[in-house]
Amino acid sequence: MLFFSALVDLSNAMAPYILFGLVFAGFLHELVPESIVKNHLGKDSVMSVIKATVFGIPLPVCSCGVIPLATGIKKSGASNGATLSFLISTPITGVDSILATYGMFGWAFTIYRVVTSMIISVIAGILSNFYPEKENKKEQKPAAVFSMKAPTNHPR
Which residues contact 85 (CB under 8 A, 6 or more apart)? Predict the structure, then answer.
């Protein structure tokens, strides 16, 4: 019973952030044309990965709220590498995270954290572009072995 209580508490704590991410993704979907996302983030190039990383830096979105945003830019035509770099860079280098790091550790560690986070997200995005997306093969349903219908080719 304690597990379910903790699960409900955690879900309630995460819900506002996920809701914020969904609302923000909706605004982005309505305000930013898909052609812009396709032109800037749709190619499997280093530049699209860097743009996605830089685009994610100023957004004050946590790791829960970034998932709907990343799903939105992926559906708008962003490449796998750009989507992955956005997923990594946004929660790590958000303005709120940068200010919290500065408050606790000072400018030296804050700059180090931002630079290394950007480098990690760009490297991950570039590596993601090297691996082609596998096509999802639809599983064929096996023929039914047992059937409720009587066979049509056998006499009764």
Answer: 49, 50, 52, 53, 56, 121, 122, 124, 125, 128
Instruction: Report which DSSP code applies to 57.
Output: T
Beta-carbon-side half-sphere exposure of residue 116 (alpha carbons within 13 Å): 6
Contacting residues for 22 by C-beta, under 8 A, at least 6 apart = 65, 68
Residue range 16-22: mean pLDDT, rounded:
71
Which residue has 């030296």 as its token pair?
108
Residue 31's Cβ-count burial label (10 Å; 0-12, 13-18, 19+) is exposed
Kindly report, residue by residue over 55-91, the tens digit of the pLDDT: 887 777 777 778 888 888 888 888 888 999 989 988 8
Three-state SS for 75?
A: helix
Distance CA 111, CA 101 (A): 9
Question: Are 29 and 72 a contacting pair, CB within 8 Å?
Answer: yes
**Residue 143 has which token pair?**
């023929």
CA 152 to chain centre: 52
Show Cβ contacts of residue 155 under 8 Å, excluding neighbours closer than 6 positions. none
Amino acid at 47: M
Extract the tokens encoding 129.
Answer: 């572009």
